[in-house]
Amino acid sequence: MATAIIETHGLTRNYGDICALKPLDLQVPEGEWLSVMGHSGSGKSTLMNLVGGLDRPSNGALRVGGEDLLMLSEDGLARFRREFVGIIFQQHHLVPYLTAVENVMLAQYFHSVPDEAEARSALERVGLGHRLRNRPGELSGGEQQRVCIARAIINSPKLLLGDEPTGNLDHKSTVMVMELLKELRAEERFTIIMVTHNQEVAAWGDRTIYLDDGVLVREERLKVEG
Amino acid sequence: MKRLLLAMVKAGSSWTITPLVIGLFFLIYIGIAFFTDETLIALMAFTRKSIILAALLALIPLNSAFRILRETGTYLTIRRVLSGKKADVMPELFDDAVELPASPSITELESRLAAEGYRTRRSENTLAAWRGISAFPVRALFLAGTFCLFTGILVSVTTRTSQRRMVIEGEPLPTPEGTGGTVDRIALANSSGSILSRTLTMEVAPSGSGYGKSVFGLYPPSLYGGFFVYPRYLGIALHFSFFAPDMPSGYETHCTLNTYPPGKEDNAIIPDSPYRIIFSIQEPDAGSDRYTSYMTGNITLRFKLLKGKEILFTGSAPGGGKFVRDGYRLALPDIRRLVVTDFIRDYGVLFIWWSALLFGAAICIWLPIRVFFPRREMVFRYEPDATRACSRAEGGSRKHAGVFHEALDLVDARKTEG
Amino acid sequence: MAIFFKLIPHVLSWVGIVLVLLRGLSGHRSVVTAASMAGFVIGVVGAFILLGSFPGSFSFGIIKSALGVSFLLLWGVSVATIYLSTGRRAAISGGGRFVNTKLGAGVVSGLAGIVAGAVCACRLTGTGGNALAVVLLALAAGALAYALVFAARAVDRLLPASFTVSMSGMLAAVVALLLFSSSSILRLDLFSPLSMKVMKGVHDFVHQFMESILIPDHLFVRPVVWKYIGFLFGKEVGFWGGMVIWFTPAVLIAMAIHFERLPSVAHIRQGAQRRRLLAAAIRVQRFRLVIPVLSLVIFSAAAYQSSFPSVEYWDPKPLPVSASQAGEIVIPKKGDVNLEDGKLHKYLFKQGDSEVRFFVLMTPAGKLTVDLDACAICKPDGYGQAEGSVICYYCKTLIPLETVGRVGGCNPVPVPFTEKADTVVVDGMTLLNSWSATVKATARVKEGGK
After folding, report:
1. Is the pLDDT of residue A49 over 50?
2. Which of A149, B341, C182, C208 is deepest in the core (most CB within 10 A)?
């Protein structure tokens, strides 16, 4: 049995009177691809934000990669996010006036130091070796998302979070992005947590959990371990 | 023998020698400064007289020469490594050296490096990649310049001789070794050059000792009989005769007067008498060139006759003129142009001029190379299951290191494929 | 109370020195603490005894020499550092390795303490030299050193661990602080005499250089070109040349740190890990630049303090005097002015269009001297008196009172005079001729002719 990279006990998040996430106990083994499904407002993004160190829980325990996130200072959380987590958003959030390679180098800059050769290699791995000098506006939706993937993995994170990464893509692009993530996970062996409302996308994962009103209501294992 | 020679070159080319010797001379300079204000001249005099100091100074050009030898050897070795002619990649000559337990796909590696702008060369078991221009030739120029500069300083300080002579128009050239040809003409003229405002030429007729007609200018100074002819100041050669009531036999002499620029005074003492004559050149009219009289040769001398401390009278007269008053008579039959000239034997000057050229060339070539085309090299020597890779850069090293690391990652990735 | 305020720059310098030593020799904190405190007390007491035993410029000369040697050492270290950093392999010099041992740390801290203590003691001259005073002074110095060292240790604990200091940076800061501390004491100041020597050195060098490579004399050279060459013969070249010599060691050390090769990460196959190591090395490198850059600021403050000292010079307004029928100027020894009080007494003698400034002074040896208020080298800006010396306003050279009346250098030009029982008599014509010859000569020098 692989060690758990994520462990939560009674994890809760309240926004005033609204309880976005009710006490949640969850364990995610290292290397797993976990899909998180639920309707809008079910607490999927809240869970992802907590696990990614983007938000602090109101209650409960949360350990990610052996670190107790509740004990980390703001600087500590920033370091954790920088070195441990890669995030792919639905909206890309690429800098529009930087080229593809420069967008990837920006992630390197905030992590440590930029290295153009490494950024170039990362874009070649995601199949964009011929689009290095193009700006986001000159790329298709699928290509933009692939730049985001390169940006997310350039710093070798242990945990890759995707918040509806294929939400704006057509079916063909969605399949391309999922294939790419599958390939990269096999090479880099990171853990993926993918938030989605799309059953097809969720089916790419090893396990899917369903949240409803902040409560874990169901769990499906889609691949057999061992 | 070869090992001894190599050891000598290694010791002689140590980077510590030049700064240590220069530091030592500065310390001596500081020590001398506590005792005299003429510090530099005193230091030069000590160096000239002391074999130890001269030998120490000689270490600097020797060090430069050895460094040229050593760095040329290193440069040629690196070239042989890059061309695959050397069995060992010699990691000590490179910035980075790595061994990997995998063999590269040469074609893929070559195309990857070519895409980064590197030129490649394949030879048996070796792939070399490089871009930019090596700064070694510039380095050699710089070291040669250092060699010339300090050789020049050493030769100049230890062997320079300088003798001051008066070169008079119409008289034989008074060289340190005797006399040369007659000085036919001394001409001062205005110049339109950007640095020199005037030119001075001295035309010397062929001499009996075998020298042909010579024309000496200002810069660079000409050689005559192994001496540099270095004009310093302008003056006049005066032939005058003086009669006084208490000196009826009179006094006649030729003398040289340092009376330029106009207004400057020089005096002639009448021996065995209380008389002294102070001469100066009449100032030209306001707005005109102060050296017009010298240029045209029409020189009017002002004079003051002193008896003891008392000024008897003042006056002026041109060349060929005379002044008579109260029984005193001063005639100026001849006034000729004169140049106070140093005859300098100093072979070090040639070395110093060469060093200026070499340094100038070095900086002009080095700057664009360093900024636009810095040299970056890497070499991969591969066996079936292992690769030795080395890299060096003369500039832009971070970018080059990134390319090198990616190349290594490419090679390493084949470990898992194998 | 006034003494307390006078000591503030020295105290602050000392705290800075200890702080830098603690940071640079962080593995030997206790040795640094003990050696620096002991050194400071020894320096204070030793200098106090020395100044009491050898009054005059000799004692100041020893302390000034120690400062000069430390500056020369900094020069040597900075040149070695830049050579080592631009080499193909990173190397630490033997000296650097020695300093980082217990013995080396103790020696460096002790010596820094001794020099800093000696400089502080120079502020306290004139407090008497008896044994009780020495003991009390030692106790006071010890207490002060103890308090300051512990203040420095407290500040040191607040600084982040990644803020490290290289050996050469540490030396630059220590020397900068010592020179800043000494620059407020006229007789220990190095920058002004350095500027003067540089000016003379540059004059000599340019003159010799032009002679050596046979450059034509100025009468052949365009005035506009000669104006630029003439700059090298002026007073400003001493100031700017002095600045170059003053700042270059710290600049070289900063450059050496900047150009140091980053550690090799070629053996690491994961890109993020390589970059993390490089980023950490760059961060350390940047922190290590802080101290040399700060040293530049401190050197600037020392140069400023030297150029604009807050010393009040005794410079009385010249009293007008006139000559008798026989052409003699007679000045009573006592009366409105006491010529034998050891202070400068200035006079102004006018005859026709000419005027002469001169002064009368009783030297520490008890001899009266009459001198022109001008020297044979500089523009006749005159002299002031402070701290046992007269200072030439033009070149800021300090002339010890013992040597006033002697000929040479920047000494005021002595004038022959006759000392009678209660008057001093000077010949007016001699004064006028002497002044006119001196001013003419120095005016020619000022024009920069060869």
Report:
1. yes
2. C182
Question: Token pair for residue C272?
Answer: 């993020």
The answer to whether residues C235 and C410 touch, using CB atoms and an 8 Å cutoff, is no
Enumerate the residues of chain A whose CB falls inside 8 A of the CB of residue B406: 117-118, 120-121
CB contact under 8 A, C271 and A115: yes
C127-161 confidence digits (pLDDT tens): 455 677 777 777 787 888 888 888 888 888 888 88
Percent of chain C at pLDDT > 90 equals 31
C351 and C229 part of one domain: no
Which among C213, C219, C225 is the nearest to B261, CB-wise? C219
In a domain, C91, yes or no: yes
Distance CA C282, CA C200 (A): 43
- pLDDT-wise least confident of B333-337, C396-400, C423-427, C429-433: C396-400
C176 with C214, same domain?
yes
Domain that holds residue C265: 2-307
Residues C341, C263 share a domain: no
Bridge partners (DSSP) listed for residue A7: A27, A63
pLDDT tens-digit series, residues C188-219: 888 888 888 888 888 888 888 888 888 888 78
From residue C29, alpha-carbon distances to B87, B88, C26, C372 in Å are 51, 47, 6, 56
C66 and C146 both lie in a single domain: yes
Query: Where do we find the tokens 């002689």?
Result: B12
CB of A144 less than 8 A from some CB of C: no
Torsion of CA C126, C130, C133, C139, to 10 degrees: 120
Closest residue on chain C to B193 (Cα):
C222
Per-residue tokens: C229: 């060459």
Selected residue with higher pLDDT from B396 and C1: B396
Structure tokens of C114? Answer: 């001794």
How high is the ipTM of this complex?
A: 0.87
Q: What class is the A4-93+157-221 domain?
A: alpha beta
Dist CA B90 CA B105 (whole Å)? 23
Phi and psi at residue B254, to the nearest 5°: -105, 135
In-domain check, residue C312:
no
Report the gap between the CA of B328 and the closest CA in chain C (Å): 31
Give the integer Cα–Cα distance in Å for C78 and C81. 5
| One domain for residues C139 and C171 | yes
Q: Which residues pair with B386 in a beta bridge?
A: B383
